[in-house]
Write a structure and sequence with these properties.
Number of helices: 24
Shape: elongated
Largest sheet: 5 strands, antiparallel
Distance between the termini: 43 Å
Structural class: alpha+beta
Amino acid sequence: MIAINRYKHIKRYQEIILVFIKHGFGTFIDQMGILSYLNIRKRIVKHTAENKFTKLTVGQRLRLSLEELGPTFIKLGQIISTRPDLLPQDIIEELEKLQDTVPPFPFEEVRNVIESELDDSLENIYAKFDEKPLAAASIAQVHLAELLSGKRVVVKVQRPKIERNIDLDLKILKDLAYFIDNHTKYGKLYDFSKMVQEFEITIKNELDFRIEGENAETFKKNFMKDKDVIVPNISWIHTTRRVLTMEYIDGIRLNDFEALEKAGLNRKVIAHNLATSIFNQILRDGFFHGDPHPGNIMVLEGNVIAFLDLGMVGKLSEERKTQFLKMLMGITFKNSKLIIQGIVGLDAMSSWVNIKKLEKDIDILRDKYLSIPLSEIKIGEVLNEIFHLAFSYNIMIPSEFTMLAKSLITLEGLVEKLDPQLNILEVAEPITGKLMFRIFSPEKIGKEFIGGIMDYGNLARKFPSSMLNFLEKIEDEDFTMQFKIKDIERIVKQIEKIFNRLSFSMVLLAVSIVIAGIIIGSGMSAHTGVEVYFLNITILKIGLVIAGAIVLFLIISVLRSGHL
């Protein structure tokens, strides 16, 4: 299937590779063996490389390559920018600049998509529809409209054929990931196929606008407890897989400080509301905005925060929230053991890890922050360093945790500009206190205790029948037990070597004893007559030939086994 995909879409393969070569990655691609894999001649590398890119940094060249290759690769770069455990900080910073703005597609195509999806004419669906888009991106563009009820809305319309193009690029990415995992040294360090699978889920979710609508409904339900945070309402009768209609929110962009001042809004209150909401999303709800940059956040009257563009979200289970809380407490109290407990609790270790050595490295990282006041610690940066260190031990941090760290770094940057005196750890403290009380409340402990009693009860109840079943199986004639010893093949090879050498030595010893016996016997019988002497000589020669044959046979056998 992989080979079929490769030859079926060879033009797109070559286009992708040539774009990376043009931006100075030709030598790297050649070293990985991708050129021969795709049957691209190496002379194209020299012909395509352009000198104007040689002065740019690796991060800049990578960003330009992804932007040129279109929506799939732009989204890929945006997601990779949340993985500081995989890439150096300078490349991360460049990928964060990825521009997802492209020329808008014609209004007639907008009309066709809407009418096809909603099965009616545009005029029967919307009372007014602005033909000029508010914004245009690689996956969709947004138009201002008005429902027949008179309510102002924003309509997000997916680009025609974009899903088909992304599907093609995903097949190519899967193919290349398979090649890298199985034919290069990088495959032993990173599971590229798994990364592509996670990316596929993310981008497919973004292509289905109903999922974004469901995310908005979840946020709305969670924010019922918060008076200072809102999300737009979704008009579900005007929403499908490729069209999303939501409430128009008329506010001020979070980073438009001049407009905020003119409107009489309080930047300190805004900063506190924003930080409180993000920590509530993470610690309380386990459902948080995955990309809270200024373009996705509006401020309304009364310092109310409005979150927009809800396609990318992070989700944390109760167990994952507890592990993050341990890491947060470890950073706050500068306690390495709590951080280690949080990492181990993620169940992200693919192989054996030297926990003691990891703890020592965490101690070194902790000591780096010992002299820094808590109010000056950047929690997002500390998390990034912890995740990067964990990755060096082949611990694959879950993507939702790296997204969480990225969200916190973005939050810290926004809060610093809104209110330089506010540290987000101060905002997190009361929220973590409530969560700690909930985790270690008598009710929670009681439930876990009862659950443990029930588990032991089930074990006691099932043990007699399980043991009886085991004993009955032992009585069967065909009963077998299998044990697996780690590195058994290496051990067997070592044992074979030892036995081969012992066998060789024993045969040589036996041959030597026989020959010595014949020689001694010949010497003792030399006076008995010529006939007997020649008989002994003949026996000695025959013995030597047989001994030589045995030794030769043994050498050949050992050489064939390769375990001398």
